[in-house]
Structure formats: structure tokens, C-alpha cells
Design goal:
The protein is of the alpha+beta class and 90 residues long. It has one domain: 2-Layer Sandwich (Alpha-Beta Plaits), CATH 3.30.70. It is built from four helices and four strands; from the N terminus they run βααββααβ. Belongs to the YciI family.
């Protein structure tokens, strides 16, 4: 399993507020299904990030593009494979 970081940059604050509930429900379900390592928003209001666990970049992109924030144009997606340093997270 590989790790991918999805940066969700703010595009539209109104849409972000409108679809926040759907976005959070999606993330909660993905977390329960074991596809998410961590997620949260940036304190400066510029967006947030989701750390996905997937076999391939395409699989991770599929998870990220299914997020209501991305599907409905509230946020812009930038996703990268991440090599987490072993032992960095306790």
C-alpha cells in the first residue's frame, strides 16, 4: 500500500460551505473503509489535505476526485505520492 497526499485548495468559499457536510460524510466513510490515513483543513482557510492509502496513483486520484468538494468545483485537487519516513508517526 502506498501513501498519497491530496491538497484541496480553495476555489469557491460559498460552494465549500454549501457542500461541507457531503465532503465530511464522504471522508468519514472513506476513513471507515480504510482508504484514509488522515485529513484536515488548513488554519489559514486556504483549503485542506487528505492523506489516502492506495495501491496506485490512479486509485488515489479516483478516491480524491469522488470527493464532493472536487466534483462540485469547491476545491482544486493536487495529488502526490508521499514517502513517509518510517517511525515518523507514533
Amino acid at each position: 500500500m502506498k501513501t498519497y497526499v491530496a491538497f484541496l485548495s480553495m476555489l469557491d468559499e460559498e460552494k465549500s460551505a454549501q457542500f461541507r457536510g457531503e465532503h465530511l460524510a464522504y471522508l468519514e466513510q472513506m476513513n471507515k473503509d480504510g482508504h484514509i490515513f488522515a485529513y484536515g483543513r488548513f488554519q489559514d482557510g486556504s483549503g485542506g489535505m487528505v492523506i489516502y492509502q492506495a495501491e496506485t496513483l490512479d486509485e488515489a486520484k479516483g478516491y480524491a476526485t469522488a470527493d464532493p468538494f472536487i466534483k462540485k468545483g469547491a476545491r482544486k485537487l493536487d495529488i502526490k505520492e508521499w514517502a513517509m519516513t518510517p517511525g515518523a508517526v507514533q
